[in-house]
Write a structure and sequence with these properties.
The chain is an alpha+beta fold. It has six helices and five strands, in the order ααβααββββαα. It starts with 10 loop residues before the first helix and ends in a 16-residue tail after the last helix.
Length: 123
């Protein structure tokens, strides 16, 4: 399986709406509850859409109730050369699974050029 090596350019976190105005999964919510990550849960607004149907909107500033314009967990590297994820070990599934494949990376403007050769149908 090919491996994607992130260059930490921040493109996905800064420019793809899902990174900072998307939704997180039920699995993310459950994981964060189990981990005691109230800091993350505070930035999520859950909307009840019907019986057993909820939408978890992230990232909403807990102080203002406003959607953010940048992921609150995106950190500038000390050397000024890119970014790091402040919640990398427990980041949302949609972040963890980005990009889905080489074509997805290209279509969404991912700047990574570090790919191992082989079948890239799924990274």
């Amino acid at each position: 399986m090919p491996k994607f090596d992130c260059l930490c350019c921040g493109h996905c976190c800064l420019n793809l709406v899902d990174a900072y105005q998307g939704c997180v999964s039920d699995a993310d919510m459950q994981r964060w509850r189990q981990e005691g990550r109230d800091d993350l849960l505070a930035w999520v607004v859950t909307l009840a859409l019907g019986p057993d149907n909820q939408l978890h909107t992230a990232w909403v500033d807990p102080a203002t109730g406003d959607d953010v314009e940048r992921c609150p967990w995106l950190l500038d590297r000390i050397d000024g050369n890119g970014y790091l994820c402040g919640i990398d070990a427990t980041k949302p599934d949609h972040c963890r699974n980005y990009p889905e494949h080489r074509q997805h990376a290209a279509a969404t403007g991912c700047r990574s050029i570090s790919w191992e050769s082989g079948d890239d149908s799924r990274l």
